[in-house]
Amino acid sequence: MLIEAFNYKHWATRRTLAAIAQVDAVAFPATLAFVCQQLNHLRMVEELFRARLLGEVPPHAATNSADVPTLEQLAQRLEQLQAWYAAYVLALDPQQLQETVTFDFVDGRGGCMNRQEILFHVINHGTYHRGAIGHALDLVQVPHPADTYTVFIHEAEPDRRPHD
Fold first, then answer.
1. Is the dihedral of CA 47, 52, 54, 58 positive or negative?
2. Is the pLDDT of residue 108 over 70?
3. Is 125 annotated as contributing to ligand binding?
4. Per-residue pLDDT tens over the stretch 14-63
5. pTM for this model (two decimals)
6. How far apart are CA 51 and CA 60, in angstroms?
7. What is the DSSP string of the chain?
8. Is 41 annotated as ligand-binding?
9. Which residues bind a divalent metal cation (predicted)?
10. What is the pLDDT of residue 74?
């Protein structure tokens, strides 16, 4: 299920990025800045959790930054992260999913989650922020894509819609 969930996350992120690309940057600079900040936060959190899964030094001291990469840079980094997480999940065996990872959050407080919980958090966290981005797109009248899991599975497997 985690493999499928990361495929879904990748699909939903690509659809969201395509919608963001339709924002008129001249007419709505604040909206574009907001969605880039949201994407930057997603990227940083995913990089932090990747480091935690690997037992590496955290790459960031916070979950956002004053300097926000361009939309193109963010899209590229999110694509790279997706590829990493997809490969990571494929390589795990069921016992590894239950292994506990102990780490410090960026606020300095300790944390402890198993690998499966971390992976679920990464998927769920993206869903939350895509929702905020969708609302911002609504406000500037850019249609945001339906990115629910039900839409994904029926698009990926059209034979699941026998009455269409």
1. positive
2. yes
3. yes
4. 999 999 999 999 999 999 999 999 999 999 999 999 999 999 999 999 99
5. 0.93
6. 10
7. -HHHHHHHHHHHHHHHHHHHTTS-TTT-HHHHHHHHHHHHHHHHHHHHHHHHHHTPPPS-SSS--SS---HHHHHHHHHHHHHHHHHHHHH--HHHHT-EEEEE-TTS-EEEEEHHHHHHHHHHHHHHHHHHHHHHHHHTT-PPPP--HHHHHHHH-GGG-TT-
8. yes
9. 41, 125, 129
10. 97
Per-residue pLDDT, 158 = 87
DSSP bridge partners of 114: 100
Percent of the chain with pLDDT over 70: 99
Provide the pLDDT for residue 43: 98
The one-letter amino acid code at 93 reads D
**Does pLDDT of 146 surpass 90?**
no
In which domain, by residue range, is 89 found?
2-160
Cβ-based neighbours of 153, under 8 Å, separated by 6 or more: 8, 160
In whole angstroms, what is the distance from residue 42 CA to residue 36 CA? 10
Binding site annotation covers 60? Answer: no
- Two tokens, residue 27: 């007419």
Q: What is the CATH number of the domain that holds 121?
A: 1.20.120.450
